[in-house]
Amino acid sequence: MKLLILIFSICISLTSFAKSYNLSIRDKTVSFSGEGKKAMAVNDSIPGPTLTFIEGDIAEINVTNNMEVETSVHWHGLILPNFQDGVPYLTTPPIMPGKTFTYRFPLTHSGTYWYHSHTGLQEQRGVYGSIIIKPKKQKLKYDRDLVLVLSDWTDEDPNEILRTLKRGSDWYSIKKKTAVSISDAIANGALGGLLGLWKMRMPGIDISDVYYDAFLINGKKEIQYPEFFLDGLFLEEINKLEIAQQWF
Ligand SMILES: [Cu+2]
To answer: Is 2-149 assigned to CATH 2.60.40.420?
Structure first.
């Protein structure tokens, strides 16, 4: 009986299909705000390519670092062996300049996910993309799939942004014209609330604190899909949070 089980499990692993992708991360100049700025891209694209699999596939992803700094890729939300998780110095070694690392893991579940660099603030510079794992058996009825990655872009160096946020400065609120002055707070009977925020060392009344130069849909400020006519819509959301102080 034991032998039978062993043979059966070998058969299952032989029938798993390995689907490979080659990803190359390199520097790129973008001009989302009209000014040329340094970015980082996967296969020369921001967002990087959508990786599509079927539940049960083996994902085999060769990531080549064509930059002068180290990098990594984290498969956000996927259930996988710890070593494949792509968090440098914690689960997986970083990918050094000029080197290729092959991530290989079974896809045990379906869903809509995303990947991103887990090194410094490279994700904010463009190293991210989506992952679609289709279920073995199609549960929903639809004609076509359209993946939309909504993201934001800032011309400012993300490290500078982090420094400004840590200082608790109101600079971005002023830039976005959402800063609250004491006179405004008094006029609106909200001085107590403002003082409460100050007591907690919270800057401005603003959930997303950073000023962005552009908001992107699949890497474009504007995009149209005339081939899609909607008579029904199923939305699955991948939550891609950028640098922002959250107060929940
Ligand atoms: Cu993540």
So the answer is: yes
Kindly state the helix (H) or strand (E) to which residue 150 belongs, with its residue range.
Answer: strand 150-153
Distance 137 CA to ligand 1 centre (A): 27
**Ligand 1: centre distance to CA 205 (Å):** 27
Residue 75 Cα to ligand 1 midpoint, Å, equals 7
CA dihedral 213, 214, 215, 219 (to 10 degrees): -140
pLDDT, one tens digit for every residue, the chain (248 residues): 454 444 444 544 556 789 999 999 999 999 998 999 999 999 999 999 999 999 999 999 999 999 999 999 999 999 999 999 999 999 999 999 999 999 999 999 999 999 999 999 999 999 999 999 999 998 888 888 889 999 999 999 988 888 887 777 777 777 777 777 788 888 888 888 888 877 877 666 555 678 889 999 999 999 988 887 777 766 666 655 544 433 32
At position 140, the amino acid (one-letter code) is: L
Cα of 74 to ligand 1 centre, how many Å?
6
pTM: 0.79
Where do the structural domains in the chain lie, given as residue ranges? 2-149, 158-199
